[in-house]
Amino acid sequence: MDIRNCKSCGAMFQYVGDPVCPKCHEALELKLAEVKDYLKEHEFATVAEVSEEVDVAVKQLHRWVREERLMFAPGVDTGMVCSKCGVPIPSGSMCSKCKEQLKNAFSQANRKEGHYVEQRSTSQSSKERMHLSRYK
Ligand SMILES: [Zn+2]
Ligand SMILES: [Zn+2]
Fold it and tell me: pTM for this structure?
């Protein structure tokens, strides 16, 4: 059994992947609901404002934003920036442009891989092997 100290209140609890105890976890969930309610009424509230009004740490707000459980209005300064290009972002860890670029890079890499395999299999055809062995 993995017993740890809660990162929030310091109480001992059975660790199951969460850095805080079940009590604090529940309290955080309630806070998140409160934050969401606040954002419904104050659509263009900033992170700093929410942090002050709902009494949540800016760090915690940022964590929720990174986990994409919380979203601020587009254009609102969240204090969070794209991890690649540094533009302010309302949610996640990257701006939509960089996300798109990453996706394209991935599919391009996949295409290259497929091409490579194809080339290798043709070079292994008997004709090619004979050709190569003649020049050895
Ligand atoms: Zn706790
Ligand atoms: Zn970016």
Answer: 0.62
